[in-house]
C-alpha cells in the first residue's frame, strides 16, 4: 500500500522465466517493459515511435537499419550500455540455436554489427516492414558481459536491464520484487514513481479478490467482466477497462482436412455458422467493456486491417435456410474444440446447437489442441490470437492463411496476396493486398471473427493508473493518489 | 491284514506324505513342514477308525487328503483298491463325505437348510427339484430333524441341530466313507452324546465306514473299532480299539491314555510323565520324533528313527518294540 | 470352621439387550474356604464366566450386578469402590483365562507382564520383581526362565503361555484364584499337566481356587466342591464325591449319563442325552429352568423351586422333587 | 435308505418338541436384516435421499422446468427465488442464463451416472482381482497385492488429471478414468473377505462335495462377501462423485455444457464472492448426495457387520 | 527384522519401478511435447526444431531408459517450460507441500486419535456422536468447497486469516485444516474401531484382572496395540495428501509441488509431470515402508520373527 510505498500486484500465471526472450506470456511482457528497454519506444496512446535506447535510426536499405545509441545509460548492475550490448543481444537471440522462445519476434533479424561505440547496424534476413514495431516491442537490450556469463537461466533468476525498475528478488512461482531504479535514464517511458512493486502469483481470481478485500493486494488485472462489474460498484476500488489486441474467432475446416465430406467445406454451411452466432449478445453479456464485434480476421487498429468486408448479422432463420440449402435441413453433428474462455466457447456452441449444428464440446489444453490441428485439423474450433500486441496485420494473417499447419482454409489466392503484402515496403501496396486477402477470407467465411477482448484492471483508490489498449501493465505510469 | 482279503479295503493310504512350504513371518524363507509323514492306513467296510493325536499332528491334513481336497506330496490313496488320482474328484465326492468340527462355520449362513442339504444332489445333477426335495425330507428324518426346518437358515438353529444338518448333507449322497473331523468337540456334552448316538445308529443302519478324528479318547474308545495314534505327522501306533486301550505300547499312547480324565472323583490328576517341550514341526527332533518328551527314552532313540513293528493287528513304531531292541513284545 | 475367603449369596446379573433384560445369572450362593477348590461346571452359556467376572468386578458397565452378599476375605465387594477393587485384583484375587493365545498382551514381553502385578501392588524394585518372576516361572515348570522373560507371547506355545498365565496369577500370592476354563483350548496331555500344576500349587500355597469348566472329568479330578450350573442357576452343589457318586438333580444325572466312561460304558452302546436346548433367559424367568428338558418335569416345576439339602448334608440341589426324581419312578436298571 | 424312516431316541422326547419348535421359528436372516435396517436412522436417511435423487435423475425430463442447455444471455445469473428472483427460474440462472434448477435436476443424472458406472467398472476389476487373490492365494495373491501396491502408490488426482488432459474430459473418459483408478479398495476388501470366507468349513464342504471352482466362488463365497462388496460400492461411488467434482473444479472433469454438479461449482466459483448461491446450491446438493451415499454405506456396514449376525 | 526390512525394501523398489514405467508411458501420450514446449504462438518450424533438439523422435523405450537412469541420479532433466533442472524446481516447491502435508497429517492425527479414543471409551456418548458427525461431514464435504467457504468466512467476513500465501505459519492454518480434515475421518474411525476392538480383547481383561488402573489399561495396554493399524493408515493418508494437495494448493495459492503438478499438466511440461508423479509415488512408497518398519518395531510379532 501507499504507507510502505509498495504496490502489491497479483499475476495469475506463473512466469516460466523472467528473461523475456524465454517466456511467452503476458506477464512476461509486463516484466519486460518494466525491467528492460528497447531501442525504440511506441507511445501506446499516440502510436508514435520515439527513441529509447536509440536516439535515432534510419533505413540504410531494405535489409539494414542503423541506430544511434543513447549515451550515459547504465544497466542495473552498473554495466555501461553501448553498441556491444546491442550486438551481443541481437546476435544471441537471432540465432535459432539459442532457442529464444518466440522465434517470430526475433527471426527476422540476421545479425547486428558495431559501427562505433554508439552506432550499430542490424541486418534483416529479408525485407520486414514491421521491424520498427518489433524493435519497440519484444526486442529489448541485455548487458552483454553479464548475459554472456549468466545466460537465460541466470538472467531469469537475477535479471539485469536498463529499465525503470530493477528486480531485487525472484522466487520462481511465488513472487518477484521490483524496486525503482534511481539511475533510470531520461526515457520516453517516463520516470518511475512507486518505490517498490511486489508481484505475487495467485492463480485463482477469487483468491486474488479476497486478498484485494483484505488489503494485501493493491492491483489485480485480467479480472473477468462479471466480477469487475461487481467490484466497480464498490467504493474502495477503481475498475478500469481497456481493449486489447486479442481477438476471438471460429476457424472452420474449409479445406476439408478432417475429411472430404466435412460440411464446412461448403461455403453455405460456413456462412450459416456466421449467421448463427449472436456476437452482439456475446459482447454485451459476456465480454462487456471495450470489446467490439469484429468482422475482419485481424484487430481493427492493426496496419492493413481492412474493415470494409462482408459481415454476417445474427439471423438464425437464414442460417437454417443456408444449412437446408447445403443439404442439411436437420443440421448435423460435429466436434467443437476450444482451449480457453470456456464460457464464451460454450455460449457459441450453444448458438450453433440452436440452428441444428449439434456440437460435441471438447475443451483441450492448448498444446493438445494445437497438436490436433497440426496433424489433421479440427472441423470447428474457437481460437484467439493476441498478435503480441504488434500493430500490424501480418502478425495475424500470415500465421493462419499461408498454408501453415494451422491454416484450415488453404486458399492459394489468399496466400499469394498475403505474400505480397507481407514483404512489400510500400505501405499502400501492403494495404491493398491485405484488403484483397481479408475480403476473400470474409466472403468465403473461412473464419468467423467474433470479437475483440478487453482487460479489466482493478486497483484500490490509493493507486492512480490509466491502462493502455495494448494489455501491458506499466508500473512506470503508476503513482499513489 | 484282516480276515479274508476277498474285498480290498474301502479306503487305503499307502506311504502318504504331505509337505507344506511354510513361510515364517511375512518375508521369512520357506521351510518344509511335513504335516503328514509316510502314513499307511487301511479302512475295511464298516470300520470306525479313530484317529487321535495332539493338535497340529496332521490329523486334519490326513482327512483332507482322503477327501481329495489336498493332493498328497507323495504316496497313494486307494478307494476300493483303485488309486484316487485316476478317479474324478466328483466321483470321489460320491463315496467319501466329510463332517466338520465347527457347526457354526460348516453351514453357509446365506443358504436355507434345503439348499445346503441338496447341494450335493444338485452338483451331481441327481434328480429334479421335486425328487431332491423328497430326498432332503427323508434324510432330515434320518438325522432326526423335522422336515419343516428345510426353509430355515443355519442362524436359526442350535449347534446340535446344525451338526445334524451337516451330517444330513454328508449322507444324502449315500457315501461309503464318512470322514468326521472332530465332529463333536465344539458341542456341549449333552449335545455331543446325541450326535455320537446318531453316528452310531447311522453306521449300523447304513453300514457306513468312518474315519473318526478326535481329541477325546473316551469318545474314540466308545465309537471306534480301530484306533490310530498320530504324532508329528506319523502314525506311531495302530490297533483294534480293545488292544490299544487295554495294552497300549507306545509311550505316547500311554501318556495319552493316562491323560484321560474320567469323572471319577477319587483318582486325582494323573501324571502323564510327558515333558513340557512341544516340538516345532518345522524342525522335528532327530531320531524318534517323540524322544525329547518320552519317559522311557533310550540313547538310540535320539539318533535312529524307529521302524514299524507289527504284531497281528497291533502295529507300533518304537524302539522299545523293534526286533533290534531285543525286548519281546509283551 | 473358619471364615470363608469368599462368600456369595443371591448373586444376580442382568444384561439389558435389545429384546429385553437377559437374566443371565439368577441367585447364586456358595462359600469358598481357604485352600479349597470349587469347580463350577455347566453347559456353555450357563453363566459361569459371568459369575467369575462378577466376583472380580470385571463385568462390562452394561451388566447390572446385584447380590445380597458378596464378601471376599472380610471385604464387602458390593460396596467396594473401583480403587479398592483395583487394589484387590491381581494382589489378593487373581484370574486365569481360557484363551492362552489372546490373554497375553502381544506388545509386551512375558517379563514385563509378569512383573506388572507385583510392581503395581507391592513396593518392590524391578530386580526383586524379576527375581520373583523367574522363581515362579521355574515353579510352573518353564525351563530357561531367565531367557523367557524377554520373550514375547507369540514366541511361546499355548501350553507355555498358560503356564505363564498361572505364574502371573501367583505373583502376589493371592488368596483366591479364579481359573476360567484354563485348559479347554489345550491338548489332553497338556491339560493334564496344567491341571496338575494348578492343583499342586494351590495346595502348596493354600490358595482357594474357583475352576470353571464344562468337562466333568476335570471337575471330578480337581474339585473339593462342585457347583453345577444350568442357565444361570446353581442347580446342584456339594463335595465332588457326593455329586458324582450320588447326583441328585436330574440335570446332573443327565450330564453324567452323556459321557462315555472307559471301562464303564459299553463300547458302541447308546449314550444318555439331554434333549432340547437351553431356554431363553430374556424377560421374566420363573419356575425351574430345566423343566423343558427334564424327564422328571411336572406341573409343579412351573412354580417356586425349593433349595434342598440332601440327606447326608453338604450337598444341595434345586428341584421340586425331594429326591430329584418324580415320585414313583424307578431308577432304570 | 428310503423306507427306513427311523425314529431315534432323541425324537421320542416328545415333551421337548415345543422348545425345538420355538427355536426354529426364530427370525430368518432376512427378517433380522429387515429389522435392523428399519432401526438404523442413518441408513434410512441415506436410502431416502438416494432414492429421491434417483427418481429425480430418472424423471429429469419431466421434472425440469426448462431445457438445461437453453441459454439466454440476457438473463444471466438471475438470483434464486428466495433471494428475490422470480418463479420463472426458481433457483435462478447460471452465467449463460440457463435455468439452474433444470441443470441441477439433470446434474443428478450425471453425478449418479459417473458414480454408478465408475463404481461398477472399478467394482468388476477390483472384485475379480481381490476374489482371485483371496481364493487362489500364492502367486496370484502376490501379483494382485503387488498391483494394489502399485496402484496405491500412484497419486490418483494427478494421474486422473493427466489422463483427462490427454483424452479430453468427455463423460465416457471421466467414467473410464475413475473406473480404472478406484478399484484398489475393492481389491483390498474383497481379498480379505474372500480369505476369511475361504477358510470357513462350508467352503471346504462344498469342495468335498465336488463343486467346481467357479461354483464354489459364485455360490458359496460371493453370497457371503456381497454385503462387504455393497458397502465398498457405496463408498467408491461417493469417492468417484467427489473426485469428478474435484477434477471439474480443476477444469479437467466432464465437459460443458454437461450439467455436472462439480462443473457447476467450478463455474459458479468465478462469482463466488458476489453470488455465493451459485456455488452453494450445487455444493450443497453434492454434499447431500455424497452424505446420503456414505450414510447408506455406513448403515449397510452396520447392519451386516459380523457382530450383528447369528 | 533386518530380513523383513530388506525384503520390504525390495518390494518398494519394484513398485517404484513399475510406477515409473507407467507414469512415463502414460504421459508420453499427453499431446505433442514439442508443441507444448514451443508455446502458444510458435510456428511449425519452431516445433520441428524443438522435436529434434529434445529427441522426441526416438523410440519411447530408449527415452524411458535414458530418463530412468538419469532420474536415479537425481536428474529429472530440464523443465520444458522453465528451462531449469526439474530437480531444482521441485526441491523448492516440495518444502511447501511437505510442510503442508506434515501440518495436515499432524492436524488430522491430533484431532482424530484423541477423538477416536474417547469415542471408543464411551461409545454412544455425546462425544462419540460428535466424532461421528465430524467424520461423516468430513467424508462428504468436497475439499475445494470447504476451502472456498473457509476463505469466505475467515478471510472475507471475519478478516482473521490471510487467504493465500506462505509467509508465516498463520498462512498455513486454513490449508492445514482443509487438508487435514480430508484425512481425519478415516483415521478417527480406525482409531475408534481399533480401540473398541482392543478394549474388548482378552489381554485387556487380563490387565484389569491384575489390578491395573484405567489409565494404565488405556494407554499402556490398549493404545499401543490399537495404534498399530493407525500408523499404517496415517502413512497411506500422508501419501494421498501429498498427491492430493493439488486442490488445496490451488485454492490457497500455495506454490507447492501439487500446484506445480497441475500447472505442468496444463503446460505439457513432461519432465516435470513425470518427476512429480514419480516423487509423489516415492513419498507414498517411503511412507508406507517407514510405517511398516515402525509397525514392525511397535509389534513384536513382526519385530521378533
Ligand atoms: N494349508 C496349510 N499350509 C501350511 N501348513 C499347514 C496347512 N494346513 C496345515 N498345516 C500345518 O500342518 C500341521 C498339521 O495340521 P493339521 O491341521 O492337520 O493338524 P491337526 O492334527 O488336525 O490339528 P488340530 O487338532 O488342531 O485340528 C500343522 O502344523 C499345521 O500348521
Ligand atoms: N456382554 C454381554 N452382553 C450380552 N450377553 C452376554 C454378555 N456376556 C455374556 N452374555 C450372555 O450371558 C450368558 C452367560 O455367559 P457366560 O459367558 O457366563 O457363559 P459361560 O457359562 O461362561 O459359557 P462358556 O462355557 O461358553 O464360556 C450367555 O447366554 C451369554 O450370551
Ligand atoms: Mg484338525
Ligand atoms: Mg465362559
TrEMBL record, chain B:
Gene Ontology biological process: peptide transport; transmembrane transport
Residues of the ABC transporter domain: 11-257
Coiled-coil segments: none
GO CC annotation, single: plasma membrane
GO molecular function (one): ATP hydrolysis activity
Membrane topology label: Peripheral membrane protein
Cellular localisation: Cell inner membrane
Keywords, in A-Z order: ATP-binding, Nucleotide-binding, Transport
Entry keyword annotation includes Disulfide bond: no
SMART domains in UniProt: AAA (SM00382)
NCBIfam families attached to this UniProt entry: oligo_HPY
Protein family membership: Belongs to the ABC transporter superfamily.
Name of the protein this chain belongs to: ATP-binding cassette domain-containing protein
Species of provenance: Stappia taiwanensis
Automatic annotation (TrEMBL), chain C:
Name of one Pfam family that matches: ABC_tran
Membrane topology label: Peripheral membrane protein
Residue span(s) of domain ABC transporter: 6-256
Keyword presence, Transport: yes
Chief location of this protein within or outside the cell: membrane
UniProt GO MF annotations: ATP binding; ATP hydrolysis activity
InterPro entries named among the record's database cross-references: AAA+_ATPase, ABC_Ni/Peptide_Import, ABC_transporter-like_ATP-bd, Oligopep_ABC_C, P-loop_NTPase
SMART domains on file: AAA (SM00382)
Keyword match Cell inner membrane: no
Alphabetically ordered keywords of this record: ATP-binding, Cell membrane, Membrane, Nucleotide-binding, Transport
A GO biological process held by the record: peptide transport
GO cellular component, as recorded: plasma membrane
Localization: Cell inner membrane
Family from the record: Belongs to the ABC transporter superfamily.
Protein name: ABC transporter ATP-binding protein
UniProtKB/TrEMBL annotation, chain D:
Any one of the GO CC terms: plasma membrane
Keyword Translocase: no
CDD domains according to UniProt: TM_PBP2 (cd06261)
PROSITE patterns associated with the record: ABC_TM1 (PS50928)
TM helices/strands, residue ranges: 42-64, 110-136, 156-182, 230-254, 274-296
Assigned keywords, A-Z: Cell membrane, Membrane, Transmembrane, Transmembrane helix, Transport
Compartments where located: Cell membrane
InterPro entries with a match to the protein in the record: BP-dependent_transpt_permease, MetI-like, MetI-like_sf, OppC_N
Membrane association type: Multi-pass membrane protein
GO biological process: transmembrane transport
Positions of the ABC transmembrane type-1 domain: 108-297
Protein family per UniProt: Belongs to the binding-protein-dependent transport system permease family.
Matches recorded under PANTHER family: OLIGOPEPTIDE TRANSPORT SYSTEM PERMEASE PROTEIN APPC, PEPTIDE ABC TRANSPORTER PERMEASE PROTEIN
Protein known as: ABC transporter permease
Species of origin: Stappia taiwanensis
Automatic annotation (TrEMBL), chain E:
GO biological process terms on file: transmembrane transport
Keywords linked to the UniProt accession: Cell membrane, Membrane, Transmembrane, Transmembrane helix, Transport
An example Gene Ontology CC term for this record: plasma membrane
Matches recorded under Gene3D superfamilies: MetI-like (1.10.3720.10)
Membrane topology: Multi-pass membrane protein
Keyword Signal among record annotations: no
Compartment(s): Cell membrane
Coiled-coil features, chain-numbered ranges: none
Limits of the ABC transmembrane type-1 domain: 94-291
Residues spanning the membrane: 94-118, 130-156, 168-187, 226-255, 275-298
Family in the record: Belongs to the binding-protein-dependent transport system permease family.
This protein's name: ABC transporter permease
Organism from which the protein derives: Stappia taiwanensis
Amino acid at each position: 500500500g501507499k504507507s510502505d510505498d509498495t504496490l502489491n500486484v497479483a499475476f495469475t500465471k506463473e512466469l516460466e522465466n523472467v528473461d523475456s526472450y524465454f517466456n511467452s506470456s503476458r506477464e512476461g511482457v509486463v516484466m519486460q517493459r518494466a525491467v528492460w528497454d528497447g531501442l525504440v519506444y511506441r507511445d501506446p496512446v499516440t502510436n508514435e515511435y520515439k527513441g529509447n535506447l536509440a536516439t535515432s535510426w534510419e533505413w540504410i536499405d531494405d535489409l539494414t537499419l542503423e541506430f544511434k545509441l543513447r549515451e550515459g545509460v547504465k544497466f542495473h548492475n552498473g554495466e555501461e550500455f553501448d553498441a556491444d550490448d546491442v550486438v551481443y543481444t541481437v546476435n544471441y537471440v537471432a540465432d535459432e540455436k539459442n532457442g529464444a522462445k518466440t522465434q517470430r519476434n526475433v527471426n527476422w533479424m540476421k545479425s547486428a554489427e558495431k559501427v562505433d561505440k554508439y552506432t550499430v547496424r542490424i541486418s534483416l534476413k529479408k525485407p520486414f516492414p514491421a521491424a520498427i514495431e518489433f524493435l519497440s516491442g519484444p526486442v529489448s537490450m541485455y548487458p552483454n558481459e553479464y548475459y554472456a556469463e549468466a545466460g537465460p537461466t541466470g538472467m531469469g533468476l537475477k535479471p539485469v536491464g536498463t529499465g525503470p525498475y530493477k528486480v531485487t528478488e525472484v522466487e520462481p512461482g511465488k513472487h518477484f520484487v521490483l524496486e525503482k531504479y534511481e539511475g533510470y535514464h531520461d526515457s520516453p517511458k517516463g520516470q518511475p514513481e512507486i518505490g517498490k512493486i511486489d508481484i505475487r502469483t495467485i492463480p485463482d481470481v477469487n483468491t486474488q479478490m479476497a486478498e484485494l478485500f483484505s488489503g494485501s493486494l493493491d492491483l489485480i488485472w485480467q479480472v473477468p467482466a462479471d466480477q469487475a462489474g461487481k467490484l466497480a460498484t464498490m467504493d474502495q476500488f477503481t475498475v478500469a477497462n481497456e481493449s486489447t489486441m486479442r481477438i476471438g474467432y471460429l476457424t472452420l475446416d474449409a479445406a476439408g482436412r478432417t475429411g472430404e465430406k466435412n460440411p464446412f467445406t461448403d461455403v453455405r454451411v460456413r456462412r450459416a455458422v456466421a449467421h448463427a452466432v449472436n456476437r452482439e449478445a456475446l459482447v454485451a453479456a459476456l465480454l462487456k467493456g471495450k470489446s467490439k464485434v469484429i468482422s475482419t480476421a485481424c484487430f481493427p487498429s492493426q496496419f492493413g486491417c481492412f474493415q470494409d468486408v462482408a459481415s454476417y448479422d445474427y439471423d438464425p432463420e437464414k442460417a437454417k435456410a443456408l444449412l437446408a440449402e447445403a443439404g442439411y435441413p436437420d443440421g448435423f453433428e460435429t466436434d467443437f474444440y476450444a482451449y480457453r474462455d470456456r464460457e464464451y466457447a460454450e455460449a457459441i456452441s450453444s448458438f450453433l446447437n440452436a440452428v441444428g449444428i449439434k456440437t460435441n464440446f471438447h475443451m483441450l489444453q492448448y498444446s493438445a489442441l494445437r497438436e490436433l490441428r497440426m496433424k489433421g485439423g479440427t472441423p470447428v474450433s474457437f481460437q484467439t490470437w493476441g498478435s503480441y500486441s504488434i500493430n500490424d496485420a501480418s502478425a495475424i494473417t500470415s500465421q493462419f492463411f499461408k498454408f501453415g499447419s494451422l491454416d484450415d482454409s488453404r486458399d492459394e489466392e489468399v496466400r499469394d496476396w498475403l505474400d505480397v503484402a507481407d514483404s512489400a515496403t510500400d505501405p499502400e501496396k501492403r494495404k491493398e493486398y491485405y484488403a484483397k486477402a481479408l475480403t476473400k477470407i470474409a466472403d468465403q467465411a473461412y473464419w468467423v471473427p467474433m470479437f475483440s477482448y478487453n482487460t479489466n484492471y482493478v486497483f484500490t483508490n490509493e493507486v492512480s493508473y490509466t491502462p493502455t489498449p495494448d494489455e501491458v501493465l506499466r508500473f512506470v505510469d503508476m503513482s499513489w493518489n | 491284514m484282516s480276515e479274508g482279503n476277498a474285498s480290498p479295503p474301502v479306503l487305503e493310504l499307502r506311504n502318504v506324505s504331505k509337505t507344506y512350504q511354510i513361510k515364517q513371518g511375512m518375508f521369512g524363507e520357506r521351510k518344509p513342514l511335513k504335516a503328514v509323514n509316510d502314513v499307511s492306513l487301511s479302512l475295511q467296510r464298516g470300520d470306525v477308525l479313530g484317529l487321535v493325536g495332539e493338535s497340529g499332528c496332521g490329523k486334519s491334513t490326513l482327512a483332507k487328503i482322503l477327501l481329495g481336497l489336498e493332493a498328497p506330496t507323495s504316496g497313494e490313496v486307494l478307494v476300493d483298491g483303485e488309486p484316487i488320482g485316476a478317479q474324478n474328484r466328483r466321483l470321489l465326492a460320491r463315496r467319501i463325505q466329510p463332517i466338520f468340527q465347527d457347526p457354526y462355520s460348516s453351514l453357509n449362513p446365506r443358504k436355507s437348510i434345503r439348499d445346503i442339504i441338496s447341494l450335493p444332489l444338485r452338483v451331481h445333477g441327481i434328480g429334479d427339484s421335486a425328487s431332491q426335495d423328497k430326498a432332503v425330507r427323508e434324510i432330515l428324518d434320518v438325522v432326526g430333524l423335522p422336515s419343516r426346518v428345510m426353509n430355515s437358515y443355519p442362524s436359526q438353529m442350535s449347534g446340535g441341530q446344525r451338526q445334524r444338518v451337516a451330517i444330513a448333507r454328508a449322507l444324502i449322497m449315500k457315501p461309503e466313507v464318512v470322514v468326521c473331523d472332530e465332529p463333536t468337540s465344539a458341542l456341549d456334552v449333552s449335545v455331543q452324546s446325541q450326535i455320537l448316538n446318531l453316528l452310531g445308529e447311522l453306521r449300523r443302519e447304513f453300514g457306513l465306514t468312518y474315519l473318526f478324528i478326535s481329541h477325546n479318547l473316551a469318545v474314540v474308545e466308545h465309537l471306534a473299532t480301530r484306533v490310530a495314534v498320530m504324532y508329528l505327522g506319523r502314525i506311531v501306533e495302530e490297533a483294534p480299539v480293545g488292544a490299544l486301550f487295554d495294552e497300549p505300547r507306545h509311550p505316547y499312547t500311554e501318556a495319552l491314555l493316562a491323560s484321560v480324565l474320567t469323572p471319577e472323583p477319587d483318582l486325582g490328576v494323573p501324571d502323564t510323565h510327558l515333558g513340557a517341550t512341544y516340538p516345532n514341526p518345522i524342525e522335528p527332533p532327530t531320531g524318534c520324533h517323540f524322544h525329547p518328551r518320552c519317559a522311557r527314552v533310550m540313547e538310540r532313540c535320539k539318533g535312529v528313527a524307529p521302524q514299524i513293528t507289527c504284531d497281528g493287528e497291533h502295529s507300533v513304531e518304537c524302539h522299545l518294540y523293534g526286533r533290534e531292541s531285543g525286548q519281546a513284545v509283551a | 470352621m473358619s471364615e470363608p475367603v469368599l462368600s456369595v449369596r443371591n448373586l444376580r446379573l442382568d444384561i439389558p439387550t435389545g429384546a429385553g433384560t437377559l437374566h443371565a445369572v439368577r441367585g447364586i450362593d456358595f462359600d469358598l474356604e481357604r485352600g479349597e477348590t470349587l469347580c463350577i461346571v455347566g453347559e456353555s452359556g450357563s453363566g459361569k464366566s459371568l459369575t467369575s467376572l462378577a466376583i472380580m468386578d470385571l463385568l462390562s458397565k452394561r451388566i447390572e450386578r446385584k447380590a445380597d452378599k458378596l464378601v471376599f476375605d472380610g471385604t464387602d465387594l458390593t460396596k467396594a469402590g473401583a480403587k479398592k477393587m483395583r487394589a484387590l485384583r491381581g494382589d489378593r484375587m487373581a484370574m486365569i483365562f481360557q484363551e492362552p493365545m489372546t490373554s497375553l498382551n502381544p506388545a509386551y514381553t512375558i517379563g514385563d507382564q509378569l512383573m506388572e502385578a507385583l510392581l503395581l501392588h507391592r513396593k518392590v524394585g524391578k530386580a526383586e520383581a524379576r527375581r520373583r518372576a523367574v522363581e515362579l516361572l521355574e515353579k510352573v515348570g518353564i525351563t530357561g526362565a531367565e531367557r523367557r522373560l524377554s520373550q514375547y507371547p507369540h514366541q511361546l506355545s499355548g501350553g507355555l503361555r498358560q503356564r505363564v498365565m498361572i505364574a502371573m496369577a501367583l505373583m502376589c500370592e493371592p488368596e483366591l484364584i479364579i481359573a476360567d476354563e484354563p485348559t479347554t483350548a489345550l491338548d489332553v496331555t497338556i491339560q493334564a499337566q496344567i491341571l496338575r500344576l494348578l492343583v499342586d500349587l494351590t495346595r502348596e500355597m493354600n490358595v482357594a481356587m474357583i475352576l470353571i469348566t464344562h468337562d466333568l472329568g476335570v471337575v471330578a479330578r480337581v474339585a473339593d466342591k462342585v457347583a453345577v450350573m444350568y442357565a444361570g442357576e446353581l442347580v446342584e452343589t456339594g463335595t465332588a464325591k457326593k455329586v458324582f457318586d450320588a447326583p441328585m438333580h436330574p440335570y446332573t444325572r443327565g450330564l453324567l449319563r452323556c459321557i462315555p466312561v472307559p471301562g464303564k460304558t459299553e463300547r458302541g452302546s447308546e449314550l444318555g442325552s439331554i434333549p432340547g436346548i437351553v431356554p431363553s433367559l430374556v424377560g421374566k424367568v420363573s419356575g425351574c429352568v430345566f423343566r423343558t428338558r427334564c424327564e422328571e418335569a411336572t406341573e409343579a416345576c412351573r412354580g417356586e423351586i425349593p433349595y434342598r439339602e440332601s440327606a447326608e448334608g453338604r450337598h444341595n440341589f434345586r428341584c421340586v422333587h425331594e429326591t430329584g426324581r418324580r415320585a414313583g419312578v424307578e431308577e432304570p436298571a | 435308505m428310503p423306507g427306513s424312516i427311523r425314529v431315534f431316541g432323541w425324537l421320542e422326547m416328545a415333551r421337548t418338541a415345543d422348545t425345538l419348535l420355538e427355536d426354529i421359528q426364530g427370525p430368518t436372516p432376512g427378517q433380522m436384516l429387515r429389522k435392523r435396517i428399519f432401526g438404523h436412522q442413518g441408513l434410512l436417511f441415506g436410502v431416502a435421499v438416494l432414492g429421491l435423487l434417483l427418481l429425480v435423475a430418472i424423471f429429469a425430463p419431466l421434472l425440469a422446468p426448462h431445457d438445461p442447455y437453453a441459454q439466454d444471455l440476457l438473463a444471466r445469473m438471475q438470483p434464486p427465488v428466495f433471494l428475490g428472483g422470480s418463479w420463472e427460474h426458481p433457483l435462478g440462472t447460471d452465467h449463460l442464463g440457463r435455468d439452474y434448477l433444470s441443470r441441477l435436476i439433470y446434474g443428478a443424472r450425471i453425478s449418479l451416472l459417473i458414480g454408478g458406472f465408475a463404481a461398477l467398472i472399478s467394482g468388476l476389476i477390483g472384485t475379480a482381482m481381490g476374489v482371485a487373490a483371496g481364493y487362489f492365494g500364492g502367486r496370484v495373491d502376490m501379483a494382485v497385492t503387488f498391483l494394489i501396491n502399485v496402484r496405491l502408490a500412484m497419486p490418483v488426482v494427478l494421474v486422473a488429471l493427466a489422463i483427462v488432459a490427454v483424452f479430453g474430459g468427455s463423460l465416457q473418459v471421466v467414467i473410464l478414468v475413475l473406473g480404472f483408478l478406484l478399484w484398489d479398495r475393492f481389491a483390498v476388501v474383497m481379498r480379505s473377505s474372500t480369505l476369511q470366507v475361504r477358510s470357513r468349513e462350508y467352503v471346504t464342504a462344498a469342495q468335498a462335495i465336488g463343486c467346481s471352482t467357479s461354483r464354489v466362488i459364485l455360490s458359496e463365497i460371493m453370497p457371503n462377501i456381497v454385503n462387504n462388496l455393497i458397502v465398498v460400492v457405496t463408498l467408491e461411488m461417493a469417492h468417484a462423485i467427489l473426485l469428478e467434482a474435484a477434477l471439474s473444479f480443476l477444469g479437467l472433469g466432464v465437459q460443458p455444457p454437461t450439467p455436472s454438479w462439480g462443473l457447476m461449482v467450478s463455474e459458479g466459483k468465478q462469482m463466488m464472492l458476489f453470488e455465493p448461491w451459485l456455488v452453494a446450491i450445487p455444493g450443497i446438493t453434492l454434499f447431500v448426495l455424497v452424505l446420503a451415499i456414505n450414510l447408506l454405506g455406513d448403515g449397510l456396514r452396520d447392519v451386516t457387520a459380523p457382530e450383528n449376525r447369528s | 527384522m533386518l530380513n523383513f526390512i530388506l525384503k520390504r525394501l525390495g518390494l518398494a523398489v519394484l513398485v517404484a519401478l513399475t510406477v515409473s514405467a507407467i507414469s512415463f508411458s502414460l504421459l508420453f501420450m499427453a499431446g505433442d511435447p514439442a508443441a507444448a514446449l514451443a508455446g502458444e504462438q510458435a510456428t511449425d518450424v519452431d516445433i520441428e526444431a524443438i522435436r529434434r533438439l529434445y529427441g522426441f523422435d526416438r523410440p519411447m523405450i530408449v527415452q524411458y531408459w535414458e530418463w530412468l537412469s538419469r532420474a536415479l541420479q537425481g536428474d529429472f532433466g530440464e523443465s520444458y517450460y522453465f528451462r531449469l533442472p526439474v530437480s531444482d524446481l521441485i526441491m523448492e516447491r516440495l518444502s511447501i507441500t511437505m510442510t503442508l502435508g506434515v501440518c495436515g497429517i499432524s492436524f488430522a492425527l491430533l484431532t482424530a486419535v484423541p477423538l477416536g479414543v474417547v469415542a471408543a471409551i464411551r461409545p454412544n456418548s455425546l462425544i462419540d456422536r460428535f466424532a461421528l458427525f465430524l467424520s461423516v461431514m468430513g467424508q462428504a464435504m468436497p475439499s475445494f468447497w470447504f476451502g472456498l467457504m473457509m476463505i469466505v468466512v475467515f478471510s472475507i467476513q471475519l478478516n482473521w486469516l490471510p487467504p493465500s500465501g506462505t509467509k508465516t505459519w498463520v498462512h498455513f492454518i486454513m490449508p492445514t485444516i482443509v487438508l487435514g480434515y480430508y484425512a481425519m475421518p478415516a483415521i478417527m474411525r480406525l482409531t475408534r474401531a481399533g480401540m473398541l476392538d482392543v478394549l474388548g480383547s482378552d489381554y485387556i481383561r487380563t490387565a484389569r484382572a491384575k489390578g491395573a488402573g484405567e489409565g494404565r489399561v488405556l494407554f499402556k495396554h490398549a493404545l499401543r496395540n490399537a495404534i498399530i493399524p493407525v500408523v499404517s493408515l496415517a502413512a497411506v493418508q500422508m501419501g494421498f495428501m501429498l498427491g492430493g494437495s493439488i486442490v488445496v494448493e490451488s485454492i490457497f495459492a500455495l506454490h507447492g509441488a501439487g500446484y506445480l503438478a497441475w500447472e505442468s499438466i496444463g503446460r505439457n511440461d513432461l519432465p516435470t509431470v513425470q518427476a512429480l508423479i514419480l516423487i509423489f509415488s516415492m513419498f507414498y512408497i517411503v511412507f508406507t515402508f517407514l510405517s511398516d518398519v515402525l509397525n514392525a518395531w511397535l509389534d513384536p510379532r513382526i519385530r521378533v520373527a
